[in-house]
Automatic annotation (TrEMBL):
This is Uncharacterized protein. It comes from Vaccinium darrowii. It comes from the Eukaryota.
């Protein structure tokens, strides 16, 4: 029986391994992690992450050919194929701070593999890493090899949170990069055989190692660039009276452009886009490609601009001050159908409003109070370290209350900000919300989910990104 071990039981390691176990009953899959609470949660009825469909997959194979364990060394030493899916945060100090990927966790995983291995291994990069990481890992392993042979493969993960199980069941493609040597190609074939249990062969792309590593950074940069492009257009739409939804539809019907990923919003978030672009920028700079680095940097700058612009719209609409005013924040996760808040635009918007002395009442159907308080007190990039190594939030932000009901959040509020596109926000009783708010009552829709005209009929002053402006907002400055 082939044995797989995955180091890192997070958003990537957990779901990908659960699907491999489900689709390959003849393979034993063990997911290991240094975090005891995470593994305990994977072994319980309340999994540590929420993904539609994940519970069912885990329940079907846990205890049969899928196991979660903290006995990292035992399972690594027994495995034939080791996936490494640990954190690769942005460095916060030293060389490359603020841009380069911090490979501390990756390197310690590689050293541990070298220490405990007693048989040949295929080591698979599942984490998103800088180009040429495989070379560094190879050096660590071969310099400590004790005669054991290692093959390093790059198999970046393209799943999107919120649709991870669907994406894993039916991926657009699986990418496997390996050394162009007979042993390298044998390892590529071994991993290909795993995916071939359910992924059609023409969707399994094989390449050299560096192309595979770079493709992951390139894919995320292209996706984020599309969002920044449409968000840049949204600012121009507001200035000219065009409607960004109509512009997106019009350009999206061009088959060369395509309709996906053209929704304008308060900005992109999630653990990957910003981190991976910064990483790409750093690699470009290290290779002397300043123009290329500056081009990609702009994608992040536009994203920051969009969040600032949103906060400025709120403050300038409300008589240039939100001091002591209650603002209801609906949605905190970085997108719907996930409880993940890593780099969610809600953090920057809330911090912006708190900076102007607002009082916030936050509602999200999945994100816990503890998580929101941690996010609002944590420094940039600290979130991407294993949870037990993150700084504890010393105090909670007292101007923030977290509630479990939209109507309580909006009661007596001056304004409502929608920051996640949860489906339930489309069917809220806005008449009831309006009746219980201070007047004038404002709605700032950062996800274009509300029916603007209907809300204006109720009496709200509505700002919806990239849509023709309410007369109230027309003469107010909103440039960041
Ligand atoms: N989240 C996504 O949507 C996504 C998608 C594609 C790729 N990625 C990449 O995958 C990697 C993992 O991301 P994630 O979202 O799963 O992160 P995560 O923080 O959810 O999980 C990482 C896990 O690794 C564990 N870990 C760290 N060092 C370890 C070690 N030495 N031994 C054992 N366990 C260790 C941590 O405790 C944590 O549970 C990152 O490189 C990320 O960029 C993420």
């Amino acid at each position: 029986m082939v044995k797989i071990c995955c180091i890192g039981a997070g958003y990537v390691g957990g779901p990908t391994m659960a699907v491999i176990a489900l689709k390959c009953p003849s393979i034993e899959v063990v997911v290991v992690d240094i975090s005891v609470p995470r593994i305990t949660a994977w072994n319980s009825d309340t999994l540590p992450i929420y993904e539609p469909g994940l519970d069912e997959v885990v329940k079907q194979c846990r205890g049969k050919n899928l196991f979660f364990s903290t006995d990292v060394e035992k399972h690594v030493s027994e495995a034939d194929i080791i996936f490494v899916s640990v954190n690769t945060p942005t460095k916060t100090r030293g060389l490359g701070a603020g841009k380069a990927a911090d490979l501390t966790y990756w390197e310690s995983a590689a050293r541990m593999i070298a220490d405990v291995s007693k048989s040949d291994k295929i080591v698979v990069e599942k984490s998103t890493v800088p180009v040429k990481t495989a070379e560094a890992i190879e050096k660590i392993l071969t310099h400590n090899s004790k005669g054991i042979k290692y093959q390093i493969l790059s198999n970046p993960e393209f799943l999107a949170e919120g649709t991870a199980i669907k994406d894993l069941f039916n991926p657009d493609r699986v990418l496997i990069g390996g050394r162009e040597t007979p042993d390298g190609q044998k390892a590529v074939k071994a991993l290909k055989d795993v995916y071939a249990h359910w992924v059609p062969e023409d969707r399994i792309i094989c390449s050299n190692l560096w192309s595979a590593e770079l493709s992951k950074l390139a894919a995320n940069a292209f996706l984020a660039q599309r969002i920044s492009s449409v968000n840049a257009m949204s600012a121009l739409c507001e200035a000219t009276g065009a409607n960004v939804a109509e512009v997106s539809h019009a350009i999206g019907t061009d088959t060369r452009i395509g309709s996906k990923f053209l929704n304008s919003s308060v900005g992109f978030g999630g653990s990957c886009f910003q981190k991976d672009i910064l990483n790409l920028v750093y690699i470009c700079e290290c290779n002397g490609l300043t123009e290329v680095a500056n081009y990609w940097k702009q994608v992040i700058k536009v994203n920051d601009y969009q969040k600032n612009r949103f906060v400025n719209r709120i403050v300038s609409s409300m008589f240039n001050t939100v001091s002591r005013k209650k603002i209801a924040v609906l949605g905190f996760a970085f997108k719907k159908d996930t409880s993940d808040t890593r780099e969610t635009p809600a953090i920057d918007v809330c911090k912006g409003l708190l900076g102007d002395n607002a009082r916030l009442s936050i509602y999200d159907p999945l994100v816990t109070e503890d998580q929101i308080q941690r996010d609002l007190s944590m420094n940039k990039f600290d979130w991407d370290h294993p949870i037990h190594l993150q700084p504890m939030s010393p105090t909670s932000v007292k101007e923030v209350s977290i509630v479990w009901d939209v109507y309580e959040a909006t009661k007596d509020a001056h304004g409502v900000c929608i920051l996640t596109e949860w489906d339930e926000f489309k069917t809220l009783d806005f008449q009831r919300i309006y009746a219980n708010m201070q007047k004038p009552a404002f709605v700032f829709d950062g996800r274009n989910v509300v029916d603007v005209e209907k809300l204006r009929e109720i009496g709200f002053i509505v700002y919806s990104i990239g849509k023709p402006l309410d007369s109230w907002l027309k003469d107010m400055p909103a440039v960041a």
